[in-house]
Hints:
The structure holds three protein chains of three kinds. By secondary structure, chain A is an alpha/beta fold. Chain A has two domains: 7-91 and 167-263, 3-Layer(aba) Sandwich (Rossmann fold), CATH 3.40.50.300; 102-166, no CATH class. Chain A has ten helices and ten strands. A six-stranded mixed sheet of chain A has the order 6-7-8-3-9-10, with helices on both faces. In chain A, strands 2-1-4-5 form a four-stranded antiparallel sheet. In chain A, a hairpin with a 2-residue loop joins strand 4 (73-78) and strand 5 (81-82). Chain B has two domains: 1-35; 51-255, MetI-like fold. The longest helix of chain B has 35 residues, at 53-87. The two termini of chain B are 35 Å apart. By secondary structure, chain C is mainly alpha-helical. Chain C has a two-stranded antiparallel sheet. The chains are: A alpha/beta, B mainly alpha, C mainly alpha. Chains B and C meet through helix 1, helix 4, helix 5, helix 8 and helix 9 of B and helix 1, strand 2, helix 4, helix 5 and helix 8 of C.
Amino acid sequence: MSRFVTKEQAAQTPAVRVAGVDKAFGKRAKAVSALTGIDLEIGAGEFVALIGPSGCGKSTLMRLIADLDQPTAGTVEVYGKPARQARLDQEYGIAFQQAGLLPWRTVVQNIALPLEIHGVSYAERAERAEALATLVGLSDFRDRYPDQLSGGMQQRVAIARALAERPRLLLMDEPFGALDEMTRERMQTELARIAVESRAAVVFVTHSIPEAVFLSDRVVVMSPRPGRITHIVDVPLGTARPELLRESPEFFAKVTEVREALHGAPVERAPER
Amino acid sequence: MNVGLERTMRIVAPIVAGALLLALWYVLVDVAKILPPSVPSPNAIITQFTDNFGIILNATRITAGNAALGLLIGAIIAIVLAALAALIRPLDGMAAPVVAAIAVVPIVALTPIFNTMFGASAQTGRVLIAAIASFVPVYINVLRGLRQARPVQRDLFLAYAATKPQTFRRLTLPMALPFLITGIRIASSLAVISALVAEYFGGPADGLGTAIASYAKSGKSALAWAFVFASIIVGLVFFLVTLLLERIVRRYRSEH
Amino acid sequence: MRRALPWVYGIIGIALGIVLWELYKLLGPTDGVVIGAVEGERNSGLRILPRTTDRAMPHVWTMFERLFGPTSGGDTAPLWQAVAAASITTLGIAAAGFAIGVAVGIVLAVIMQRWRVAEWGILPWVIVSQTVPLIAFAPVVNSIGIQIDRSGTPWPQWLSVALVASYLAFFPVAIGALKGLGSPDRAHAELMRTYAAGYWTTLRKLRFPAAVPYLLPAIRLAAANAVIGAVVAEVSIGMPGGIGRMIIQLGGQGSSDPAIPWGPIVGAVGLGLVAAGAVAFFGWTMRNYRRGEATA
């Protein structure tokens, strides 16, 4: 259950509904099944992590939600609309593993990119970009170029950009994957705060179990060959996610639960992967 | 688009485009008769080409010969100089602006002077122009190629206590080779065009360029274009030969 | 101080060239070196090193002095003035040809990037087009131009020269722009898809800026080519007033006035350098578009 949800909100349209989705690449006999029989509902304001080993289809699933790819069977709906319509209506903001900043634009220009494309006035753009830069703690760097920023800072710009149009849904594909561990933990705390403030639903793809548990309300565990959802782990650790949470026994218990779900058995012996 | 369709389209598309252009040319000249007499019909050109094949071949020999000789001389000097420049930093510093200047300056302007210096009855002037034109791309590319070995690779060779000649033979040279060949490929077209254009600026009354110029001036446009056709073929042959060389070198590299 | 280094090196290089020239004049054989000469046969053999006489190889300072002498004897303006005037004329025409060539090249590149079929169909012909020597086209363009001019629409001769120059200039731009427009990686292109940005928006906001690092060397080449094209086309069409015509005219006078052919050479060299300088300046203004994405 999402941390914000009231009875009224529970009756709201889910942020994401995936029903009976299959995704195969290639033709007929040589087809590789990336996803089979995916059913998933994500509520408004809910933070959901997708986790699993390589090839389990978590990134593919996120791309289907983003309408960067289409399912071979089943439907994907975002806030009640088909994924394609949701994309055209700009219902989500997205952040990839590579920050994907345009190298010739400054920080604020990068943040303002979606606003520019959608014809927002100059004054409004400037204001919003400033506010977002401050939100992610980069207002001192507003006029720097990407090659003058560290990896963590670039990712923060990417997140700010994803929030530019105040989307109700955030899609993030391993955004902290290329960062070192210390920066990663800092960014997780930032993101948890931002998610609370913006009240957006978040779909977060990751490899890291502690990261998934720290950030989400629910962890969706997937496994490959064929790609499918095997477990969904509830993480009722509260709305606020302070740094100290990482050292609490409840946190460790949940991490263990997710790890066991990933390995398919309690961890008493060394994993076979 | 699936792979099979793409492969066919890649070959069909240019053929269709070319056929369309040819058809358009036919229509404009033979049917609609819009273009002036200096634009001959494809028919007339082919006739002239076959009728005068002998003199066309002679002219081709001269121009192609100049281009090839110029290419050879320019490439050799470029390789030697680039090797020296890669070794001796100050030399590179001095050569760089001069080479950059040569690249932007119309070298063919020197033809009349070369003809005065070397005699107006010799092909030397034209060969020199082709050589200078070929020199620039080969020099730039070989220099870049000799610098390709990255520090981590050089460190590896140091760790193996390899001697300088060994490092050169097993690291620097193989990495530089593709760049050399690319430079030669670029230089080949330049050599042909330069040799041809140089004929415009004086010298003996032979070669494809002088033929094109004099027949165009005297109104025999179909004959002039027959010579143009020959020069296109020369250019293509040079290009394809060097392209083939490039492919061979690339395959040789990947096998080793 | 560091910045001046290439200039210093350049000057040293030129000075070295001058020294070599004079040294050869001093030490080289008077009649140059001829290979394969046959006894008694005049003009046989191939001269591979030039004669060192003042007629064949004037002293460098003679060349310099000549620039200040009269253009064609008597009261005519000093040579350097005539050279400067002709150079500026040709520069203007080359600039026009450059502009046309760049425009056509970019339009072609956009078409080829947008539709792959267009790329497959057009690109091979674009490459082949460069094997056709422009001296073949120049008279054709000129006569078509004359026809158009006679039928009412004014068509000055320099326009024909500019068109021929543009023919040489469009090729590197088309190739470079095509490469550049297709250079953004998948992540960036997909980002644009998530913004539901259409092709033209993506072109403006992503592909064109990403193409700048590829366009700049192409434009450099196009500028140089436009200059060469203009000079050669002038000779081919026989247009008066440009540096091309002057090179031929004064080149022919070399036997009686050895230093005079070097005058227009200075003009031509200056032309090329000005063109290169203009492109370099443009590249400097575009420097923000040449930044990479790598982290600090």
